[in-house]
Amino acid sequence: MQWNTIELSINKGVGLITLNRPKALNALNSELINEVNLALDQLEKDHSIGCIVIAGSEKAFAAGADIKEMADLSFPNIYLDDFFHLADRIAMRRKPLIAAVSGYALGGGCELALMCDFIYCADNAKFALPEVTLGVLPGIGGTQRLTLAVGKAKAMEMCLTARQMGAAEAEQSGLVAQVFAKEELLEQTLAAAEKIAEKSLTAVMMIKESINRAFEVSLAEGLRFERRLFHSVFACSDQKEGMQAFVEKRPAKFTQ
Ligand code: DAK
């Protein structure tokens, strides 16, 4: 497949999608969102892939949705075509997604990172939802997911003032899982992704599904859901292998 706006590589059970519109600081246009989804379709179908990383360049993960593409759209264009609805599909993926954020993650770029299951960032990362400066508001989940990640006070402040949040504050606030020197970000992210990819894919996907339930249902319902999934893994050979390997003091070899 010939990609125009991304690069795709696969190694050691990990799919790496690199956003590749350097002249526009990886601004998300329709073609890029479409290509990210096509790559994700391919990686989700392939059961040898256990984890997916989305990265940008050192200067920019993505500087937002493409303002030049959006500027002249009318309400009927945007409403009838459900503009950017494909972006929502990224958040619906079932395999784990890690965002590796270096440099700018602004507007839609920050929202794309927030759609991933966790974010690792470089020490030069800058997160912001500056849509208010353009006379609009975040449109692909920013007001919701940023609030869930960092709480109301910081989400309100960031969305209303467009303030950029740096890497250290992002880690303290729970927006990112870990911060690395920018030279190490990709290597560290791929190492974590490979660790995930070595595990039982079934267990990994169930963990993702179960954690995401915590945002949708009551604690009692969430606990019941987790318990049922826990019971069900005893029908999988990976549970037998994982526990047998522990007993035999050897590394487990998962196959499902
Ligand atoms: N869109 C289009 N082009 C962009 C861009 C963007 N978001 N950001 C940067 N570029 C382009 C610049 O126009 C410039 O192109 P040329 O002029 O060379 O042709 C090139 O990238 C390099 O940018 P700069 O020359 O500006 O580079 P600097 O280092 O000086 O500044 C910067 C970097 C990131 C601070 C600056 O480029 C900047 O402020 N960019 C815009 C950041 C921003 O406002 N982002 C939020 C965009 S709004 C929705 C879906 C999505 C959204 C909303 C609704 N619905 C489905 C309802 C999302 C909205 C947004 O994300």
From TrEMBL:
GO terms for molecular function: enoyl-CoA hydratase activity. InterPro entries: ClpP/crotonase-like_dom_sf (IPR029045), Enoyl-CoA_hyd/isom_CS (IPR018376), Enoyl-CoA_hydra/iso (IPR001753), Enoyl-CoA_hydra_C (IPR014748). It comes from the Bacteria. GO terms for biological process: fatty acid beta-oxidation. Its EC number is 4.2.1.17. Keywords: Fatty acid metabolism, Lipid metabolism, Lyase. It catalyses: a (3S)-3-hydroxyacyl-CoA = a (2E)-enoyl-CoA + H2O; a 4-saturated-(3S)-3-hydroxyacyl-CoA = a (3E)-enoyl-CoA + H2O. It is an enzyme of class 4 (lyase). Coiled coil: none annotated. Belongs to the enoyl-CoA hydratase/isomerase family. Could possibly oxidize fatty acids using specific components. This is enoyl-CoA hydratase. The lineage of its organism: Bacteria, Pseudomonadati, Pseudomonadota, Gammaproteobacteria, Moraxellales.
